[in-house]
């Protein structure tokens, strides 16, 4: 019978630590904000336990280890590490953490805290795929109080004899913070640094759990004081270089130095090292073989072959296209008290909407360009062929161009036929102003002209919106309106409604009045202090009525960036996916025209429960199973190794639970790693029968406010702010000055080619080599040649227009029009299916007509099927008008667009 080793006694201090760690993890994945799934936590624990027991048995004693320490390490890593959804990355930290206990030893005792070593190894070796968990995952001040209570328990109730270490570390760190606060006083308010550090649960976790680990910390009081001083001093040096995760690296440096000192003290023992080296070599060989085996398995399952790219995007110069954009003065026109943060708050809203406004058969473009010059903002460009566009003046928008302080900035646009008369009307979302609705008079007068009907239609509400969309809520044949608010429209704390206008904040009404600054997000992962999203029912005759919030099924006041709409569960009704910044996205299934049902998973990371920064929502059937999948762009950078979400839709007809949606971005190589993601658009770029997608990246550059030759990084300052509680980071006057600084301001966009079960980035091969900060991604066939061209918008640069020069391939296009009674004239929600026999993929191609479909982007409303090598002949296509009723079959000639009107 195998004996048990390290069986805990009743007074074993590891047991309460284990209980506390279990509490942290359980609370974190259920109602705090940990970005870890139960499966990931389980895998981390399994690796720690199994590997610890195995290595102990093979390298130390032929006994069965009771893995209390392994469980503590695994739970600690579940708290400390952050990575995207999926299981492979979860293997890395626990492997290195456990292996370090057997490889790096002196006198049989490990010299590194296993959790710390696992974090450092992941940071160094994962190429940015794993980061330390962000401080904001813990929530607010109540969690901090919980941690302080935990700290007291660790210090007084458990006999760990590290009180000198803890006290001296806190004193030295407070002194260091004071020095940094004074040195940085011109960049960031001192209280932001102090409150950020001393209200951060992550700081207490490091202080009371990690550096106090008895086997790897100093034993004597004098040694503990030196340890505290050394860590704080190295941390200060690392801050000099604006480094991240500085405390982890500082503690690692101390433990390395201590290990070398212990090795020197035992040099006599290691002078005749044969037996010792054999043991060390055995440990290194065994752990190395296990690691290589895991790496090989990963590579074998992640062999994403690219292959040849059969198209190129060719940039069309502004001199040819007529589409440009020059620098404006919007930042300087904001309230002077907001100048330091205006660049951050006004970092979105450069949108484009494509439709045939004048019914000449060519897609036209409306551009918002809110940060550009007066003559470039809110302009319509009519397509004259051969990638030449002419401005068409809309005089009703002149006040927004000339006086945004009074009327707001146009920041979102959606073309739709609101009255089913056969021409496209224009819905505009406004930042810091009233919404606008322009009725197209083309059908009524025979010429392109617009009439402003926002006030009489009931849509002139004050809003701060970068997201508009339309959908037929109740299948009455009329398109209804969705308007998403990205910030709070009225300031809190006043006894009267005070609109939030970044151009003119209210004056202080008493000494210390800061109410006007309480406009930032109150949480980094669960912000609920923006404003309600709006839903308007189309009553006909150009009139709309707002549906009360309690009837919509919507909840909360999220920071809405984008909204996509389409039939997700095949019941014939339009559903909604809302991408929210600083908090969970929202998935709403239509209850057959009677409002929406919110769909949420049970744990953090499941649909409706993500902790990400949703920037984009795009629908499209990527695997041709007949259900639209959902792409959501997110951030994958230092501090936030999260990445895009790709909710693959496996729903059955009428299914309404979260189990139907699985995030497969990591598995399908669509994570958009090491990028700050924004808009995305789906389309078959090489006409091989599969939907590809394009991805916009980059946050903020210094193109409009350059101060230094090399742009300083603002992300470091953002990291300091992210440590604070909402009563700090929720106020704009507590933020560091972003002027002249960059936030991932030079990033390449991506072109993800669909290879069946995975995607590969073909941006360089396709000619997309420019770097910058992009926002909206638009795919449209601007020259009607049967391939998708591209338009990319930028906050601080002119739009980029690209012609698709593709290899010869078969195609067929559809321009669909509903009858205007049972199905809206735009045919939104209509499904078209190309038969499997005619598809180059040997499976049916499923497409749906969408309105806005992505951040700041409305794409070509026409449907384009790629046919591969089949360039001639006819194909069979089934059409289900507005997603309900019988499927009508058509046999159509390839190589052209077909206009089909519902009878």
UniProtKB/TrEMBL annotation:
Transmembrane segments annotated in the record for this chain: 15-34, 40-59, 71-91, 111-131, 138-158, 164-183, 192-211, 223-239, 246-264
Record-given protein name: Predicted NADH:ubiquinone oxidoreductase, subunit RnfD
Cited PANTHER family: CARTILAGE ACIDIC PROTEIN 1 (PTHR16026)
Domain ASPIC/UnbV: 829-885
Pfam families according to UniProt: FG-GAP_3, UnbV_ASPIC
Keywords: Membrane, Signal, Transmembrane, Transmembrane helix, Ubiquinone
Family matches, as InterPro entries: Crtac1, FG-GAP, Integrin_alpha_N, UnbV_ASPIC
